[in-house]
Design goal:
With about 375 residues, the chain is α+β, with helices and mostly antiparallel strands. Among the domains are: about 100-195, 3-Layer(aba) Sandwich (Glutaredoxin); about 210-370, Glutaredoxin. About 45% of the residues lie in helices and about 15% in strands. The chain is built from 15 helices and 14 strands. The protein has helices at about 1-55, 65-70, 75, 115-125, 140-145, 165-170, 225-240, 240-245, 265-275, 280-290, 290-295, 300-310, 315-320, 325-340, 360-370, and strands spanning about 80-85, 90, 100-105, 130-135, 150, 155, 175, 180-185, 195, 210, 215-220, 250-255, 345-350, 350-355. The strands form 4 sheets. Strands 4-3-6-8-7 form a 5-stranded mixed beta sheet, sandwiched between helices. A 5-stranded mixed beta sheet has the order 10-12-11-13-14. Strand 7 and strand 8 (about 180-185) form a beta hairpin. It is elongated.
Amino acid sequence: MAKDKTTKDSSHAKTTAEEEKKMDWEEETEEDSFKSSSKTAQNYLAVIILLAGLLAGSVFVDVADLVRGEGISQKRLAGKDIFVDRAGKTWVSSSDPVVDLTIVNDESCEECKTDSAVVGLKSALPTVVPREISANGDEGKKLLASSGSKVIPVFIFGKSIEKTEVFPKIQNLLTQKDDTYLLDTSVLGITGKYTETPSFESKNQEVWGNPNAKVSIVEFSDFQCPYCKVFYDSLNQLMKDDNYKSKVKVAFKNLPLSFHKRSNDAAMAAECSGAQGKFWDMYNTLFSKQSEWQNTTDNNKFKTYAAQLKLDTAKFGQCLDKKELQGDIDAEKALAQEYNISGTPAIFINDEFVSGAIKFEDLKARVDALLAK
């Protein structure tokens, strides 16, 4: 009997120990589950706080920088005009908006490089963001057509340039086109290239030379410009040679500059003479006698020249004084603007562009090279 009791007691103790162990395991499992759930809840709460902070603007660190450990708090930047980041890069604050700049260019054109020009632009306009696209691509062709520009590269600024501090200072160098602004690239020292040359035909003047000549010269000029007088002397010397006169044709485009006070009236005198078939006669007179009339204050000299050329002086005087052909002059000025021409003389010899006066030897060499082709 004692043996049976001992066996039962042993069995009961074993059962009790197993039950206690099971209870302990269940308690541990419940505790671990609680800890895991608590940790998950804490993680969710942290994420919610972070997202709420981002949305509310209470966290001022860029997410990508946060991941890299390089975040910069906007609070830290507030009130600073200059900031140097961990990489040693210096950032300068600006009240100007970001200004988009699209540059339509031909990467194969050596005269069209914009690197130095862009550096200069960034000095004057630090918030400009340039993007260069090919003039040969679909987007480039579309932008060229909509801009109306005949020269590459084309600099096209977004409308936000209006809100920059420098805008009032450079506005006269910009041409508004819908919601964009085109920059006159000649001020950047970029030679560039023309996508097409100006039309040869000019109103109120016959062709000087052979209308069917192989070489054409189109000159944008100002009768009061001293450099234009230098080119006139070179061209006149060339065209006096019958050998060249039969192989070259010349067209003149008026571009009277605003700081030459008598240039527009001189252009009008030439156009009014052209209306009577004597444009080139007045052209020669105005350039050869430039020193006589450039400091005058009225049109009397021009009327004297008209009488010497045996024009109908009454008709000429009315045309000159009432500026009857100002529209023709303005049209040629607008044509110059299309080609980003702002100075004189500007010369096209076939499809070659030359800016500034050309001496006779240089002009002759250029024409000879074209005739030899």
